[in-house]
Amino acid sequence: MEEELKVGKRAIDRGRVRVHSHVVERPVEEQVSLRDEQVTVERRPVNRPVSAADAMQDRVIEAQEFTERAGGAERGTGKRRG
What we know:
The chain is 5% helix and 0% strand.
């Protein structure tokens, strides 16, 4: 005896949702202090003979500069308007 099974699928509408977004802009002014860093490298003459230990060393010296810029971030309040 042989059986045959046919399997299918169908789409079922489960409802809809409508989302409305309302944006309100308002200008603001704030005073902020900004910091700016600068790195200066000075070459100075050597005042002593270079030793063998100094001459055979590989060295890397890093200096990083930072600056600040004014900016803002928006965040939602979670309150519904309208």
